[in-house]
Amino acid sequence: MSVARGTIAGMTSIDERLLLKTAAEYGVPGPVARELMAGTRPCLYLVQHKEVPESLRENARPAARTGGLPALPDGVEWPEGREPLVLSVDCAALPHDVLDIELPADGHLLFFTEISYPPESSAVLHVPAGAPTTERAASYDFRGEAMEARVYEPRTLYPVPGLTLDSEWQGGPRTGEFLDGDGAVDVLESFEEAVRDLAFGGRRPGACVQIGGLSDPWDMAPDEGDLVLFAQIAGQAIDYTVYTMNLIVGTREDIAARRYAGLQYEQQT
């Protein structure tokens, strides 16, 4: 089975016992369910409060915000290109021990990119916890001309663990045998959806922000080889009128070392 997109077995947000129980309910053999589990990676979805599963709402804690203006430390300017701030993540408010990529334990991650058109420049900045910051204005001077950076509507987001599947997991030998049976394709599709929903704790969100996991691209997946998904931002999660998929990938080493200048950005429409 192909797990080329960085699958790490054992780190999932659904345990094997529950997976096998669900497989039995759908008529999926245990070995097939285990092949599915081997092709998973955990993620965090960042969603509005109304999309948090009911069982989790009482203890839900905000951890991110779309749009707004960036609060930056003294001496740190709005990144070159003045791409809009699309997302701010409070790292300390994220659930720990969920992801298989290493994020800062505290401080804020700020994502600057253009979601309406392919970005000419993009950036992720980490603002350390406790650093004195000043909110920057949207207006600025460019070669003597008054300019205004785009500011998206701020919306509070909440983190919910989820599970992503390798698109080629069905290439496993036991799954291949199962697919030879009548109606097996529909059964597997229903089983996949049930597993994803179980990991989320309810019906998975549609257009949202995803941290870590495997990408869900509209075209070729950019998280191949040594590159893993850092963040996936649906345009509609920032602006209801924008239909794009914005993907940010990098090596595990660069992500862990906070070498965010080495990240790669791709926009799909």
Give a nutshell description of this structure.
With 269 residues, the chain is an alpha+beta fold. The protein has helices at residues 16-26, 30-38, 54-57, 173-179, 184-200, 235-238, 252-256; strands at 40-47, 64-66, 71-73, 85-90, 108-112, 123-127, 133-135, 139-142, 145-148, 155-165, 209-211, 227-234, 245-251, 264-268.
Can you offer a commentary on this structure?
- The protein is α+β, with helices and mostly antiparallel strands and 269 residues long.
- It has one domain (16-268): Hypothetical protein YwqG fold (Roll).
- The protein is 21% helix and 28% strand.
- The protein has seven helices and 14 strands.
- The protein has helices spanning 16-26, 30-38, 54-57, 173-179, 184-200, 235-238, 252-256, and strands spanning 40-47, 64-66, 71-73, 85-90, 108-112, 123-127, 133-135, 139-142, 145-148, 155-165, 209-211, 227-234, 245-251, 264-268.
- The protein has a ten-stranded antiparallel beta sheet.
- Helix 1 (16-26) packs antiparallel against helix 5.
- The longest helix has 17 residues, at 184-200.
List the helices and strands and how they pair.
Layout: H1 16-26, H2 30-38, E1 40-47, H3 54-57, E2 64-66, E3 71-73, E4 85-90, E5 108-112, E6 123-127, E7 133-135, E8 139-142, E9 145-148, E10 155-165, H4 173-179, H5 184-200, E11 209-211, E12 227-234, H6 235-238, E13 245-251, H7 252-256, E14 264-268
Antiparallel strand pairs: 1-10, 1-11, 2-4, 2-10, 3-7, 4-5, 5-6, 8-9, 11-12, 12-13, 13-14
Helix pairs in contact: 1-2, 1-5
